[in-house]
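PROTEIN DESIGN WORKSHEET
SECTION A - STRUCTURE
LENGTH: 703
TOKENS:
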């Protein structure tokens, strides 16, 4: 009897033959049982459903009405790919167990065989190297298993039946073998072992298609590599708890994207989730079920298609609305959620032009200092608005409002730019009184302004038509002065896009009178190039008397001051775009960050948009963590927070992360659900192809 490393080679050949036969028979059994279960789902007979899965910690099989579409997809996938691995493991008592592993679906088979999902706890054994051991919890009982044999399959089905190609067989004594075809192995089982042994030991042709070691496959298509079984370390990574933040770095071909996809698939497989992760399996803030609450970002549409194909192989449904490029998603956020970008249906402040040419090159390479300066500027500006507001309110106060204003002064006196959330919380107890005082004064001033408009109309019924024609000469990009924006509630809301020319003229007249009245009361000059000053000049002698302006002005000034404290937390988010506009002007004057400014003040680049999105999300998340917001998020005054929270997902994943800037990655991270904070990204610094992509671990830590 011929020996190879102390093992009888003829017995080994027989062992491989038996492995091939058992495998192909098991493939047929899996296909048959999966097909039977599909028939049960179709004909509605619940009594013959697959028996309880003993290889996971999942609950007993649900009745027919509770079986989801994922069960049907799982059975269908088994008819196409019955198993991806076979593992023989030995427990501490020396008893051997054979486990068949599928990609995603578990199944109880006849004759005491079982098929476990790779996502399950048992599935972890398929990632352990031969000779290694691991602890697995089966039916709430932990056991330690040592791997003594493992085979990785690539099943195919043809007219002759099932086969598996390029099979990797590993044994603790025989090492690693590549078996090109299980069916061919069986067909050539009668070949002389002695002749074939000489070939094997000399490194020549295979024994019945068996190669010593790993045989490499020929590249036949440009696609992401299919890696059904991860290695031990990748397996540990993708099984980490859902509330982890992970950045996987490595060169091409090391399985980064595969690990990302398998992690997502495993966290969507509710039956196989660890007990700790189960608590996160709830509808998200958008009302989406857990298995639909995720987003994957890729740098380009081309890579998006590759990733979608890889998702398909792992049987993870990947609709277009869940695999996105950041460029398209950022526009949707900025236009439809945050109100930053202007469009036909959105009256946002800015127009996206994309070119970063007017930003200094060092900021494009590393935007952290620039963004942090913008963030600090925004917080200081918002606090400055409140400080100025209380000063205006004090000057216009009466005995009726003195107590309220004193309460605001006390609350504001404790505020700092880096802790505005505490200020907003303190204002909640008096916001009702603030709102009531504003409405009471507004009713009076509105009546006085309406009387002035009526006076002009009675004198000339073409007055509004003439004003409308004059307004046509105005630059539509004119900016509103910061102080003017608090004169009227309407300035805080989205202005209807379908206003008639007459309605626009009425609005312009009312706004002008409010501005002129407030400036008159505060004994300030109207800014020379402001819209109010130009309409005033057009009105000429039709401007109301000084006494009328003073009467209106006191009420407008009081409203202007108080309105800054009414629902102030919302402006912490909605003022971000206005703050950036002021920040850019201020910085350019100080010769910081910018080479020049765009000809049109409303034009911004992608990087500027990312900065505004990031700060908006961060400010919103600060407040969403507060009880006074989260408990009342359905109230109309918190609509902006509800709208932003609806964009959060239980899992956020990013492929080729080094092609994204630190700002972009931080934006994506801030789209993760506040409870899970699940953020999983992968990439390679050496493969970065964009000029603005993240460059080092310091930037990763900043994200």
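SECTION B - SEQUENCE
RESIDUE ASSIGNMENT:
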């Amino acid at each position: 009897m011929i020996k190879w490393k102390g093992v009888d080679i003829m017995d080994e050949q027989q062992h491989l033959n038996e492995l091939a036969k058992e495998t192909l028979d098991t493939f047929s059994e899996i296909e048959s049982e999966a097909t039977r279960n599909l028939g049960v789902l179709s004909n509605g007979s619940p009594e013959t459903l697959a028996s309880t899965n003993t290889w996971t910690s999942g609950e007993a099989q649900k009745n027919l009405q509770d079986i989801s579409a994922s069960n049907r997809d799982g059975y269908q996938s088994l008819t196409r790919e019955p198993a991806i691995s076979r593992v023989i493991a030995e427990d501490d008592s020396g008893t051997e167990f054979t486990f068949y592993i599928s990609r995603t679906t578990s199944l109880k088979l006849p004759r005491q065989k079982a098929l476990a999902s790779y996502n399950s706890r048992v599935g972890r054994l398929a990632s352990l190297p031969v000779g290694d051991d691991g602890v697995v919890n089966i039916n709430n009982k932990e056991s330690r298993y040592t791997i003594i044999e493992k085979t990785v399959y690539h099943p195919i089905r043809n007219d002759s039946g099932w086969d598996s190609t390029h099979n990797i067989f590993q044994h603790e004594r025989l090492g690693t073998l590549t078996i090109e075809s299980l069916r061919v192995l069986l067909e050539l089982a009668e070949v002389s072992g002695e002749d074939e042994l000489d070939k094997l030991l000399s490194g020549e042709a295979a024994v019945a298609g068996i190669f010593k070691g790993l045989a490499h496959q020929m590249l036949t298509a440009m696609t992401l590599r299919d890696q059904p079984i991860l290695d031990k370390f990748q397996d540990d990574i993708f099984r980490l708890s859902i509330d982890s933040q992970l950045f996987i770095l490595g060169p091409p071909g090391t399985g980064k994207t595969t690990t990302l996809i398998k992690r997502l698939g495993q966290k969507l497989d509710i039956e196989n989730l660890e007990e700790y992760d189960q608590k996160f399996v709830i509808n998200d803030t958008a009302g989406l079920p857990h298995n639909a609450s995720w987003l994957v970002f890729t740098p380009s549409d081309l890579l998006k298609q590759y990733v979608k194909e890889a998702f398909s192989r792992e049987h993870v449904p990947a609709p277009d609305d869940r695999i996105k490029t950041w460029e398209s998603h950022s526009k949707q956020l900025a236009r439809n959620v945050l109100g930053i970008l202007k469009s036909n249906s959105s009256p946002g402040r800015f127009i996206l032009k994309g070119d970063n040419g007017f930003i200094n090159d060092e900021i494009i390479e590393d935007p952290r200092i620039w963004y942090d300066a913008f963030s600090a500027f925004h917080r200081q500006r918002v606090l400055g608005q409140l400080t100025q507001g209380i000063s205006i309110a004090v000057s216009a106060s009466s005995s009726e409002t003195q107590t309220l204003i004193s309460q605001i002064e006390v609350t504001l006196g404790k505020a700092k730019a880096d802790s505005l959330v505490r200020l907003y919380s303190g204002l909640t107890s008096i916001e009702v009184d603030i709102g009531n005082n504003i409405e009471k004064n507004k009713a009076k001033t509105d009546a006085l302004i309406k009387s002035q408009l009526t006076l002009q109309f009675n004198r000339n019924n073409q007055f509004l038509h003439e004003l409308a024609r004059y307004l046509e000469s105005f630059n539509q990009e004119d900016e509103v002065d910061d102080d003017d924006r608090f004169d009227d509630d309407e300035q805080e809301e989205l202005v209807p896009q379908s206003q008639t020319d007459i309605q626009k003229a009425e609005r312009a007249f009312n706004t002008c009178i409010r501005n002129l009245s407030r400036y008159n009361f505060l004994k300030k000059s109207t800014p020379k190039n402001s819209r109010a000053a130009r309409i005033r000049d057009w009105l000429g002698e039709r401007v109301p008397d000084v006494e009328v302006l003073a009467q209106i002005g006191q009420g407008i000034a009081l409203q202007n001051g108080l309105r800054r404290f009414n629902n102030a937390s919302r402006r912490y988010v909605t003022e971000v775009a206005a703050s950036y506009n002021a920040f850019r002007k201020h910085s350019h004057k100080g010769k910081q960050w910018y080479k020049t400014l765009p000809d049109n003040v409303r034009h911004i680049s992608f990087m500027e948009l990312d900065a505004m999105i990031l700060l908006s999300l961060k400010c919103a998340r600060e407040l969403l963590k507060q009880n006074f917001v989260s408990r009342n998020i359905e109230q109309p005054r918190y609509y902006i927070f509800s709208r932003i929270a609806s964009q959060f997902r239980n899992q956020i994943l990013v492929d080729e992360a080094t092609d994204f800037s630190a700002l972009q990655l931080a934006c994506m991270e801030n789209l993760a659900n506040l409870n899970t904070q699940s953020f999983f990204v992968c990439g390679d610094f050496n493969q970065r192809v964009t000029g603005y992509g993240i460059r080092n671990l310091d930037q990763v830590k900043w994200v």
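SECTION C - NOTES
The longest helix spans residues 9-43.
The chain has 25 helices and 19 strands.
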